[in-house]
Design the sequence.
């Protein structure tokens, strides 16, 4: 697989030596895709004309229209009010909001909450901190923590499967996708969310359903490396079991047969129907 690039979420931007500014511009809903693209180019050209460096940027669709958010360096802008007015006067603009300027560091105070998957609220913790939480659970409760984390993961995976089914059915015009496709989308999504990188997925639906899921860089495996206990990635294997159970309508169990936290090159899970 080609080497992947890291993804920096722009809710805090650290750029030493720069005068930082957040600019949010919401434009009227565009009738055609090229109208939206044309407005985007107009905004970028206006920023360039005022010698503004765009450090981060993203675009999102809101009920009132498209919002463009720019994290910019305004060190060379002499009249910030005039700068903002130039955007307010555009006929396509619904609103202009901003934060700053701040020196060296700026935090996005214009948006809350953070969402993904069509409006589901998200919060971000570092993988290191979550790994430390799991490590302490295992140190205090021993292998009893395996049961707790597996159950939590199972319930979460069950709820995730319901959500992905609804989301993907709506996106496909009411056509419900087969379980295999929903599982593939979920694993790719979880890679984008920083959980792991899927390496291999094999599902056999002949007779009794069984599956193999192999991933690498699973964040949960980080918590295994400093422990002597024979435990694995119980939260993620619970998520897989709950996800499969919801999609196929029969209860699954998941067993981790290889773990990166115990010197394996990847984590591998086998899923089978219970009973």
Sequence:
């Amino acid at each position: 697989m080609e080497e992947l690039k890291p993804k920096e979420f722009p809710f805090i931007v650290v750029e030493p030596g720069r005068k930082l500014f957040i600019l949010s511009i919401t434009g009227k809903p565009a009738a055609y895709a090229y109208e939206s693209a044309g407005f985007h180019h107009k905004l970028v050209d206006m920023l360039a004309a005022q010698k503004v460096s765009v450090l981060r940027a993203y675009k999102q669709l809101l009920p009132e229209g498209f919002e463009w958010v720019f994290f910019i360096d305004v060190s060379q802008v002499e009249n910030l009010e005039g700068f903002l007015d130039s955007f307010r006067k555009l006929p396509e603009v619904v609103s202009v909001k901003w934060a700053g300027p701040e020196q060296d560091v700026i935090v996005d105070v214009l948006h809350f909450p953070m969402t993904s998957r069509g409006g589901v609220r998200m919060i971000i913790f570092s993988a290191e901190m979550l790994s430390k939480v799991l490590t302490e659970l295992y140190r205090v409760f021993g292998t009893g923590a395996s049961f707790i984390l597996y159950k939590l993961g199972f319930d979460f995976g069950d709820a995730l499967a319901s959500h992905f089914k609804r989301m993907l059915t709506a996106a496909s015009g009411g056509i419900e996708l087969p379980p295999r496709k929903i599982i593939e989308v979920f694993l790719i999504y979880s890679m984008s969310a920083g959980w792991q990188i899927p390496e291999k997925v094999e599902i056999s639906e002949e007779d009794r359903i069984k599956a193999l899921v192999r991933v690498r860089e699973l964040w949960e495996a980080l918590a295994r490396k400093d422990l002597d206990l024979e435990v694995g990635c119980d939260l993620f294997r619970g998520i897989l079991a709950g996800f499969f159970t919801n999609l196929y309508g029969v209860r699954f169990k998941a067993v981790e047969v290889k773990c990166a936290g115990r010197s394996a090159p990847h984590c591998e899970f086998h899923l089978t129907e219970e009973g």
